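I have a small job for you when you get a moment. Can you supply me with one protein entry, sequence and fold together? It will help me judge whether the discrete encoding reads sensibly. Write everything out right here, beneath this request:
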Amino acid sequence: MAAPTVPGYSPGFKKPPAMLRLKRKRLRRSEAAAEAAPRPRDAPPRAPSAPTRRNPFSSLDNAPRAAGTAQPREPARPPPIPTSPGGALPAAALWQLLEPDCEEKPARRAEPSERTDIFSLTRDLCVPAAVPEVPSSPRHEFPADWSIKTRLLFMSSQPFTWAEHLKAQEEAQGFAQHCRATETNLPQSLQEPKLSTELRCAFQQSLVYWLHPSLPWLQLFPRIGADRKMAGKASPWSQDEALQQVLMSDWSVSFTSLYNLLKAKLCPYFYVCTYQFTILFRAAGLAGSDVITAAISPTTRGLREAMRNEGIEFSLPLVEESKTRKQKNSEVSLEMEVTSSLEVGSSTEDGGEAAPSDDDDDESFSWLEEMGVQDKVKKPDAISIKLRKEKHEVQMDHRPESLALVKGTNTFTLLNFLINCKSLVAASGPQAGLPPTLLSPVAFRGGTMQTLKARSITGKAMVQAAYTNVCSLEVSGPVLPHCLHTLTALLSAAQCGAFTAICYTHQPTAVFNSSLDTASPAQEQETVHKDLLKCGLHPRTLDQLCQHPTLGKSSIHFLEMKDYAYSWKA
């Protein structure tokens, strides 16, 4: 007799339950036969049978249940999510909709459902578990973010169908608008975004960036920590010195071309991404500076020494800022100590003296002379003292605090240093012989036009005991600072001024948001700003990038627009 089918049972696990049921049936028959058989009058009654054993091959939800037991419980539904009056998803709802599924956590089994929900559509997204806090006072503009984003995820209750399936003519028009630096000014709100050809062309225009070198089978950004992704890929130049020289010669031409465009204010900024550090070159007028600047992060003591030997003048803004802060704190504490000593009637002469540790250093070996054993004790030599002084400098290697800033004409010296620096290229490993990656918002000699990848997803989510549409737009690739601003401007018009965004930052570049104390007078900034109008950026985007950085060593990772006003979390 075939085993009865059990609802929800997987077909691959029919035999073990059937065997166990057959075994229990035989056991019951033997027990019944034993009960029917005559037994001695004084024999004690037989003990009750042991409880039936659960099938170890079945899960708790799929295990067969006896008659009269509770029915299998239904899959848990997501909790209701409130919506804001403007139609945008609030911050708490956004984080509730996205289910984290990072590499550290095992993948969850999808719940059976006939309707597509947002959990299955966004299971490849990794987001923090906590809901970020946003400023209480929204603004009409968010601060410039000089870090490179690897991915942007926009969420809205309005669909992103206008970003799907661009026509060939719209794609071509977007490329032409990018190359000609055409300004696109959309109205504040679009009633039918999908029917707006101007919006779709501007969207294609905002996705364009320029790259060198271009090797389609290799992911050339990010370069820091990319050895695992590049392992096993074809690299014919790794063992061919002649081919490495050709690649470096071509790279030097492209690098020089970008610097000349930057100097002529025809390129606003560009990045040089090596396997150890990243350099951000900014034109005069950006980030509150009236001269060309180059920010290098992270650096090492060896790189800084090599730059000093080449005569490159640079500063360490974060180290100097830390020293200034410590000095102010020490002065305040010293004043407090002097005040307290005056209150207890101590002498005022000790207040202006140097720290007691200095006197202790001078007289640290005086007691040895009194004992007559000063010659038998080895004192620290000059090299040890020098190493002790440089201990802090070595400790900050590979950290954000090691940011080096080069300004003015020293950036040209840095250009020549990088072209001739042999340690700029890895000598071994998957990146051996591969020149650094050049990323630019405008065209340059040897650069290849690339586009960011964009895809839209529409799913379902439970909102107040009913399913509602939840739409998302994912943009992946090296998202440059100007691209974040232009995309948000387009979404403001297309999504009726209501959307939320999660930004995934390439962390080694977050330190570029630090304040570098390069502010210039307002009149000079206006003159420099007028010269940058031909750099290829939209005037509103240019205005944002000219502002003084305010994010510090962090970057924007959560952005929300509600009623055409921005809130963000860094």
About this structure: Residues 208-229+236-335+391-451 form one domain. The mean pLDDT is 78. The longest strand covers residues 467-479.
